[in-house]
Amino acid sequence: MRNLAISLSVLAIFGCTSVESQPGTEQIRLLSSTEAAQCKKLGQANAQVTDKIAFFERDEEKVAAELLTLARNEALKLGGNGLLAASEIRHGSRQYFVYLCPHS
After folding, report:
1. Where is 43: in which H helix or E strand?
2. What CATH architecture applies to the domain 2-100?
3. Residues 6+ apart with CB under 8 A from 64
């Protein structure tokens, strides 16, 4: 019973993790490989968030959204306006390529 109480306390403290987006990142699009081929590759962004709290798996959609937010923040720093997922999500990590695309 005590272990359950400790686990619930950990979830209560860390379960509300949040990644904040920087101003301007709303303009950064997630690209298809076809779209990325028309753009200039600027670099890559490696994003990582917590995918487990204690022994509980976090919601996959929330993890994916937080990874994309972190990648958008990094793309903004690199001067990019597009991202292409370069890997699958694994252990809370994902790699993205950052692109600068012509305005459509």
Report:
1. strand 40-48
2. 2-Layer Sandwich (3.30)
3. 89, 94
The domain segmentation of the chain, as residue ranges, is: 2-100
State the Cα–Cα distance between residues 28 and 71, nearest whole angstrom. Answer: 10
What tokens appear for 90 in the block?
A: 């694994």
- Each of the 104 residues of the chain gets a pLDDT tens digit; together they read 544 334 434 444 444 557 888 999 999 999 999 999 999 999 999 998 887 777 787 878 898 999 999 999 999 999 999 999 999 998 889 999 999 999 75
pTM for this predicted structure: 0.77
Q: In the numeric block, which tokens belong to residue 28?
A: 């950064």
